[in-house]
Amino acid sequence: MEKEPGEVPERRKRSDSDRFPRRPNPAEYESEWYARWIEGGCFSARPEADAPRFTIVIPPPNITGSLHMGHALNLCIQDALIRYRKSAGADSLWVPGTDHAGIATQNVVEKQLADEGTSRAELGREGFEKRVREWKGAAIERINDQIRKLGCAVDWTMERFTMDEQCSLAVRTAFKRLFDEGLIYRDTRIINWCPRCRTALSDIEVEHAEEEGALYYIAYPLIGDEGAVTVATTRPETMLGDSAVAVNPGDDRYRSFHGKRLLLPLVRREIPLITDDYVDMSFGTGALKITPAHDPYDFEIGRRHGLAQHRMLTEEAVITGDYPPYAGLDRYEARKRVVEDLKAAELLKKQEPYRHSVGRCYRCDTAVEPYLSLQWFVKTKPLAAPAAEAVREGKTRFLPEKWTKVYLNWLDDIRDWCISRQLWWGHRIPVWTCGSCGAVSSSVEDLAACPSCSSAALSMEEDVLDTWFSSGLWPLSTLGWPAGTRALEVYYPTTVLVTGFDIIFFWVARMMMFGLKFGGDVPFREVYIHGIVRDAKGKKMSKSFGNVIDPIDTIGVYGADALRYAFLSSAGMGQDVYISDERFKAGRNLCNKLWNSARFILMDSPGAPPLEKALEDEPPDLADRWILSRAAVLLDETKRAMDGYRIDEALHKAYAFFWHDFCDWYLESAKPKLRAGQPGRRALTAAILHRLIALNLSILHPFLPFITEELWKLLPAAEGMLAAAPCPSLSWEPDRDAEDAMSLIQDFIRSVRDIRANLNAPPSKKIEVIVLTGSGEKIQTVKAGEPYIAALAGVERISFLRRGEIAGKQTLSSLLPGMEIHVRVPEGAMKEEMRRLEKKRSALAAEMERVERKLGDENFLSRAPGEIVKKENQRFAALKEDLHKISERLNELSGR
To answer: What pTM, to 2 d.p., does this model score?
Structure first.
């Protein structure tokens, strides 16, 4: 029989002895609970439901790798949001999937083939594609298994792959529409070319970094005249492909050279000296060599002046056969040879160090070549304008808002997008050229005959599309576009995209452009930008730094909940996340605390009446009113924080309530009532404990789903699975009077504890407390709190005296607003304490004298680093303060 969502499936039986071991064992229950959530339909969307919608599409991981800490952070944030929204009653959908990662995947499989002694050329295109598809199945399963280990509440029935049938249909449909509208075109232009990957790259796939290089000054002799024009370049080897030398028309230094012709060194080709406003008169010599086939700006200048385009490099970045002395040389080896030959010809005037920006392939880190090539492009400005306007109008907003400007600046200055890649793995460009009439056609379905002349002599484009083309359609294609599916109708636009800032250009902007173009609306209402994961010292995690932490290894040691806590407790909106073993241990400690508190409650009071019934039978005391008030406040605060995507704030508030309010204060004060109270009092205390441990589990579930679910099943009143349960409710209003009174009692208890600590009084030693206050209201509050003070501070008796009545008594005191707290000290204890403090004061005085001598030593001050001197000054100030405190305490004890 089909189960209702959240109905608990059958699970393995446990004996009473292992029902509640002293410590939780995540390895025992995490994988089991994930399977039960899936079986119970907890993550399935309900498009037929009459409920608010909350939708997230997963940023699809590349199939080439395992999930790293950045992925884990991203997934944990999404999971906390989706679980919270489910509990709040929304029909929530989280769409999973993976990206085919064209360049990276082809590289991985080609390396495997090389290890096997074969190649993609030997397999042929169809054979190679088949081999990649066989490999990608295992790759996707590996990634999905890691997603399951993190506990991610994705709807696996909606899983997509960027090259599956549905996504491929979306890609071809989008391409054809853009092609038919003239927004996709083919042209020979300068593109970014990776010689290693042997493919074109878009501008944003090139990572620029400053590198040390050199500036070479080369003389170009005048033809038919004395003298030469000297140019400065960082890439002397490209001079082989020069078509001209350009100067600024306003540069008086070269006015007499206008119209002259120059002899290209080494090649001995005649080239003109031209004038163009683009030339920067302040750079180098003010004369610019023009190589139209190997520089994007030179390409534009060459078009303006009708210059020839000489390719001097092959696709592998070696010199072509057109230049025999250098033919076949790698570009860097050719640079050395060219420089040597220029020196021999006395045409290299000088060479000087120069730091400049070098573009590198974002996949393999090879220096990218500007390369003249026939490629396919998308006209982006008509698509970018609506995408920018939608954000300006608030249809989509960035969180934090600072990323809005970054997004808009890029769209406002966007260039046409090179979408063709010279690969075999990817969406093959759906364009056919007719060998009979020359017509170029695009089609969603494969063409068997030319639409223009019906000839069967068709050849399909060999190149594939840029991976980001299919990724740009992700919110649409995953929901069924171009078909008018129910999912598309219900869940588009999606609610929020959770991603890193580094792919705002790669992905976010392109989804915005395609979403508005094909979906008629923005693809998401909000874009949540998180920071990057760093180690405890603030370094970005990198294999080169040796500081990479594998999230799956961490789960094996600490459990998934501890890993999630480490991320979510420090994932402030837009802030970088600092990860260390200490953060994981803090998460594990929280899980242990949850386990032990639930263990105590359920073992000391296995059953409890409904809270509402218990409150009818027994009036709540001050501690009851206070904790119920704190719980009501917590529910409101965490809701507002989660609704505002302040995930870390919500977790901090939930942590503080559970650990401090509930465990440290209420649970401790409840123990005497459970063990020695009247039946009505015991029943009410048990009812509150049961309701609040359930509330704690519910609120913490989006952050720590596994252990909260494991404990939830043990609660007598729990129904179904927590993953499918609604948000907790509490019919109790905040009680300011109870909170104020309890705050005073807590301060009172802390003060008494501090005095006990100063006396080194063991917990078993009961003490007498004297209170001096003129406020009758405060006296009544302390009297009302006497049971808690006695239980939590080890107090035997509290006396309320006037000032004159305490004279001559040996006490230690503490001040609270409008109240003095005195603890009577036995004679022997007072003397022992004074001896201890005298010894401590002597040690501090000696240390302070030593530091003071060091700071007065001119030799030390002149030689020590400033940071060391600063620390010594801080140490002196701290010692002085400690010495003052001990002196004051001694004066108090001696009655001075």
So the answer is: 0.85
pLDDT one-digit tens code per residue, 528-565: 999 988 887 888 876 666 777 889 999 999 999 999 99
Q: What is the pLDDT of residues 235-250, one digit of tens each?
A: 999 999 999 999 999 9
Taking the C-alpha atoms of residue 396 and residue 522, their distance in angstroms, rounded to an integer, is 7
Q: Please state, in angstroms and rounded to a whole number, the distance separating the CA atoms of residues 499 and 522.
A: 16
865 prior amide bond cis, ω within 30: no
Q: Is the pLDDT confidence value at 11 over 60?
A: no
Tell me the pLDDT tens digit for each residue of 241-292.
Answer: 999 999 999 999 999 999 899 999 999 999 999 999 999 999 999 999 999 9
Residue in the block written with tokens 């719980």: 631
Three-state secondary structure along 840-871?
HHHHHHHHHHHHHHHHCCHHHHHHCCHHHHHH
Cβ atoms of 725 and 698 within 8 Å: the answer is yes
769 beta partners: 798, 823
Q: Would you state the pLDDT for residue 548?
A: 76
Any residues with CB less than 8 A from the CB of 438 and at least 6 apart, and which? none
Span 578-583, average pLDDT: 90
Can you give the C-alpha Rg of the chain in angstroms?
Answer: 37
Pairing of strands 458-460, 431-434: antiparallel
Tokens of residue 461, six digits: 């484009």
Residue pointed to by tokens 């534009």 = 300
- Tokens describing residue 48: 């037929």
The single residue listed with the structure tokens 């290894």 is 553
Report residue 496: phi and psi, to 5°.
-145, 145
Q: Give the integer Cα–Cα distance in Å for 383 and 377.
A: 13
Which strands form 206-221's sheet, in the order they lie side by side?
Answer: 228-233, 206-221, 348-361
460 in Cβ contact with 415 (< 8 Å)? no
Strands of the sheet containing 199-201, edge to edge, are: 199-201, 184-194, 369-378, 417-418
Is-contact 360 209, C-beta < 8 A?
yes
What dihedral do alpha carbons 647, 649, 654, 659 form, nearest 10°? 130
Structure tokens of 221?
């002799």
Q: What's the distance, CA 139 to chain centroid?
A: 23
Strands annotated E in 283-396: 287-290, 348-361, 369-378
CA-CA distance, 686 to 602, in Å (whole number)? 9
Provide the 8-state DSSP code for 379.
Answer: -
CB 407 within 8 A of CB 398: yes
Q: Can you tell me the distance from the alpha carbon of 182 to that of 780, in angstroms, rounded to the nearest whole number?
A: 83
662 CB-near residues (< 8 Å, 6+ apart): 597, 627, 692, 696
430 vs 855, more confident: 430
Q: Which sign, positive or negative, has the C-alpha torsion 866, 872, 875, 880?
A: negative
Dihedral sign, CA of 823, 665, 642, 160? positive
Residue 37: how many CB atoms within 10 A of its CB?
23
**In terms of Cα–Cα distance, which of 423, 524, 522, 511 is closest to 472?**
511
Q: Which pLDDT does position 509 carry in this prediction?
A: 96
| Sequence-ordered list of residues with C-beta below 8 angstroms from that of 175, at least 6 positions apart, any chain | 184, 429, 430, 442, 465, 469
Distance, CA of 69 to CA of 541 (rounded, Å) = 8
Q: Which of 812, 831, 709, 716 is nearest to 757 (CA)?
A: 812
Quick one: tokens of 630? 């704190």
Report in angstroms the alpha-carbon separations of 160 from 132, 163, 468, 705, 815. 17, 8, 15, 25, 65
